[in-house]
Write a structure and sequence with these properties.
about 170 residues, single chain, globular, Nucleotidyltransferase, domain 5, about 45% helix, alpha/beta
Amino acid sequence: MRVLGIDPGLSLTGYGCMELAEGEPEPRLIEAGVLRLKSKAPMPFRLAQLHDDLGDLIEQLQPDLMVVEQLFSHYRHVRTSILMGHARGVVLLAAQLKGVELDELLPTEVKKAITGHGHASKIQMQQAIMVQCRLSELPSPPDVADAIAIALCAGRRLAPTYEVVG
């Protein structure tokens, strides 16, 4: 089973794909990276680009499940949350149109599962992902680490119950 974690953004959208294999206790990292959007382009153009790039990524990686963080809004950053909601909506739409099952996790749940602290910093997340996925360097930019963390958290939730049928 493949799990694709997405960290949506309007300039960079991070992704991380983990694979669960029968009998393996931990998901294995398949691929991770970022989709780079034209940050100076108008919003509708960036949303269309994100949709197209996500569609290509889904076709390439063939995930069984896509996971995205639930939207969190802080009263000091309401505008940012609204803007990120646009990108998140494109992620949800892309999964639906490609027939990929979708799940959502709270940001604090992902951070706590990966670092043990629900309010971990970006660098703490990068360091934890580097160690847990046995990477030779910090995943960069932080959007990549966040996307891997989302996929890893979801994969670990599924691992005890996952078995290949066939």
